[in-house]
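F.,

This is the one I mentioned.
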């Protein structure tokens, strides 16, 4: 992808969201998005699973239009896979008439939340051994804003545009010391104190 290209996004259909709501499938798709095309064997090694399961679930993702087999010269019998999109999105209201898809949304959101907590905790545990430069730019924050739904939608669109601008800039001008960075943000109504 060139720096002029925008991030590709798929708005998940009910079928796609049901297929993606599986622990190995979501990890396979994530690995392909972050690390690029790979064989089932390499993915099995990276995700500590077996090649048979990896191949099966890659085919399920392909049938749903989330990954595709990539033709490569001199690959022999190895099959290479790549993600078709860099980002998946959904709106909970799209699946109100499909209990299976609605349950998949619940599972995916729970999975995302758990992943966020695990990854933030993993960083917190190793942060003391990292450089001051990385420790100083990493962290957590929160804001409380009084907004109407339309205002929140506008804020989210502005944040996505800002993130895309910085992503494109980083792709166009790679810097020494570049690392994959996870950026999490969530926006939801305040529901009271959490105990």
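My design for it:
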């Amino acid at each position: 992808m060139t720096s002029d290209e925008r991030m590709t996004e798929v708005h998940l259909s009910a079928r796609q969201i049901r297929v993606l709501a599986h622990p190995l499938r979501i990890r396979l798709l994530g690995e392909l998005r972050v690390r690029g095309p790979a064989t089932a064997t390499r993915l099995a090694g990276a995700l500590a699973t077996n090649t048979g399961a990896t191949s099966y679930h890659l085919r399920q993702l392909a049938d749903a239009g989330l990954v595709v087999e990539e033709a490569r010269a001199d690959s022999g019998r190895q099959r290479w896979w790549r993600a078709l999109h860099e980002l998946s999105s959904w709106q909970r209201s799209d699946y109100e008439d499909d209990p299976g898809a609605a349950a998949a949304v619940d599972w995916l959101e729970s999975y995302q939340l758990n992943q966020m907590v695990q990854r933030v905790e993993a960083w917190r545990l190793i942060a003391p051994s990292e450089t001051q430069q990385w420790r100083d730019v990493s962290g957590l924050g929160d804001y409380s804003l009084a907004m109407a739904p339309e205002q929140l939608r506008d804020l989210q669109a502005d944040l996505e545009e800002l993130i895309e601008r910085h992503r494109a800039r980083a792709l166009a001008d790679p810097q020494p010391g570049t690392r994959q960075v996870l950026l999490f943000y969530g926006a939801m109504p305040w529901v009271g104190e959490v105990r």
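The chain has a mean pLDDT of 90.

Talk soon.
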